[in-house]
Amino acid sequence: MQPFRFGVQLSNAATGAEWRAKARKVESLGYSTLFIPDHFEDQLGPLVALTVAAEATTTLKVGSLVFGNDYRHPIVLAKEIATLDLMSEGRVEFGLGAGWMTTDYEESGIAQDPPGVRISRMAESLAVMKELWATGSATYAGEFYTITDAKGQPRPVSQPHPPIIIGGGGPRVLGIAGREADIVGVNPSLAAGYVGPEVIETTTAEYYRQRVEWIKDGAGERFSHLELQILTFLVQIVDDSKSTTESLAAMMSVTPEQIQGSPIALIGSVDEIVERLQQRREEYGFSYLVVHEPEMEAFAPVVAALAGK
Fold first, then answer.
1. Which one of 34, 56, 122, 169 has the fewest CB atoms closer than 10 angstroms to its CB?
2. Apex CA 161: angle with CA 159 and CA 162, to 5°?
3. Strand ranges (DSSP E) for 238-297?
4. DSSP string covering 143-192, please?
5. Coil, strand or helix at 34
6. CA nearest 169: which of 190, 184, 193?
């Protein structure tokens, strides 16, 4: 089993000073990593924000969950990530996704191809970036990218590449993640292009058991070396977990058992959540938990109890 690690996903700050203070707070609370999403909505630009966060801290890792491949050319993104890894002395975790949020495509005018096309394009992009980072150059002829003697300078400190995160909720993308990634984000299905009832239906324990099997199929002998990551969406530190869960279940039109069994949900006292995370690591292999900014201080005692164990 992998030791526990924890991250925080943040999106915004009103000033540079506020953003730096948030990064330092994440670090001081014992979290391993600060993440930021990559969308065209109201959020900071990821690469600049991650650079500032890395500069404001000393041990904190930084990354995006996840860079949207469809609006980032692999040669450009590879250079930016290598530069950030160099400047932060190897503190980058590189998350890459095929793109999913419909509003990103509507706002930008970028064509939203079918999921299979986007996943294939992401796989090609990752192959180009891995080659640039590992060897310093790349030539590639694929369906989506034609790269001719591209120079991969600077080289990242992390070799052969920064730790790669690929996340998803379907068999094909999780198979790719099992083969190519170091960290696999095990997510609900986002095929609908937005977060709605269709997504909630895919957050139950049975779906997550199946997703772990898809990762195993792709990873083969690599599986024992992978970190399995969960981005949580329902975290509450409370003394009365039963009544809180019942209230939330009624609001979401699901059963309390579905909420308590879902890996994206953590509701209970610190001790209850510590025990539940240990059980889920035993059952699924999930060892890398990411919470959002509003929960990070309340969740810190869980981090203190489990990080590195």
1. 56
2. 105
3. 265-268, 286-292
4. SS-EEEEEE--SPPSSSS-SPEEEEESSHHHHHHHHHH-SEEEE----TT
5. strand
6. 190
Domains of the chain in start order, with CATH, are: 5-230 (3.20.20.30)
Residue located via tokens 């509450």: 236
Cα separation, 75 vs 79, in Å, equals 6
- How confident is the model at residue 148, as a pLDDT? 97
297 in helix, strand or coil?
helix
Quote the longest CA-to-CA distance of the chain.
Answer: 61
* Structural tokens at position 172: 């094909």
Strand partners, 234: 265
The CA–CA distances, whole Å, from 92 to 169, 226, 284 equal: 24, 17, 26
Q: What whole-number distance in Å separates Cα of residue 157 and Cα of residue 210?
A: 36
Please give the angle made by the CA atoms of 16, 35 and 42, to the nearest 5 degrees: 60
Q: Find tokens 């059980």 and name the residue.
A: 279
Q: Tokens for 303?
A: 């981090």
Nearest to 168 by CA among 196, 206, 207: 207
Cβ proximity of 223 and 178 under 8 Å: yes
On the question of pLDDT at 193 being above 80, the answer is no
pLDDT at 194: 52
- Measured CA to CA, the distance from residue 300 to residue 117 in angstroms comes to 40
Query: In the predicted model, is pLDDT for residue 121 greater than 60?
Result: yes
Distance CA 102, CA 145 (A): 23
pLDDT tens across 89-105, in order? 999 999 999 999 999 99
Q: Is the peptide bond before 154 cis (omega within 30 degrees of 0)?
A: yes
Cβ-contact 71, 108 below 8 angstroms = yes
